[in-house]
Known about the structure:
Elements: H1 2-13, H2 33-47, H3 52-64, H4 96-109, H5 116-130, H6 163-172, H7 177-184, E1 191-193, H8 198-202, H9 210-220, E2 231-233, H10 245-251, H11 258-263, H12 270-278, H13 280-294
Antiparallel strand pairs: 1-2
Amino acid sequence: MQFTIIVVILFFIVPLALADLRVGFYSSSCPKAEAIVRKVVQRNYLYIDRSIAGGLLRLHFHDCFVRGCDASILIDPTEDNESEKDAEANETVRGFVIIDKAKKKLEKMCPSTVSCADIIALAARDAVSITGGPWYAVPTGRRDGFVSNPSNAEILPGPSSTVSHALQIFTSKGMTLSEMVTLMGAHTIGYAHCGFFRKRLEGRDSTMDPSLNEKLVRLCGNSSSSNNNPTTFLDQNTSFVFDNQFYEEIVNKRGVLFIDQQLALDSSTKGLVSKFATDAESFRRSFVNAIVKMGSIGVLVGDDGEIRTRCWDYNNNNNSDP
């Protein structure tokens, strides 16, 4: 009953954005598609790297916020052409191997049927679910794009963005202030390299809890060398659990990234942060609505785009075996 209610709410809130996508798009053409993706994500999470769940969510976000959810982030650069993978904002993006594994299995089961863009969206959902977050129905039917340019990734908000700057980017994609705060909650299972927040440590940022500051200084050291770039979790409390603890952390000045901490301090967002910090169910409901809406940004459907046979390359370049 709860699953049915959630689906109805999603389509009521964003009917126009999701009009060209639908839940169960592959029910006839590739009935096991979602199960195949889920199994690949689960195996990698359980046996290889539990932190990959946050990586898959970030991959989904970085794909959708550039040219739309068209898998442009998956294209490999060549000697003649750069791709979004070359963009500075995407240097530490992860999850490509998992998408490729799922695609290889899907091509054996249902050749030229399931898009790489849909695999990203499904893998992100499974990452949320496997870490204790809500399971939600993913509308599918996306197709893969023909353009991947690193300059397009310059639009992505960075770890040192202000709330107002980040909001400009979100609203340009049709997302609201509330949805921005909600999607930032995905940082509950994310981590960041020291390079993303080292300047806060050097300046002894007064908005950071002193004990966290000392801990991160010990981790990161004083060198800005790329060889000294460890990682730390953005939610220092329940790092592998998709919950609302991220908001409680930033309320207590334990935000690792500047942008995260600013959410709890800016007058336009701190009210919602406080609400999510004390109301886990409200956050879960809001997150489902927000990420499904994000997954509809700039989608290619129908006869637009293509269904890549290999996610890292356009079909007209697929002249060799995978």
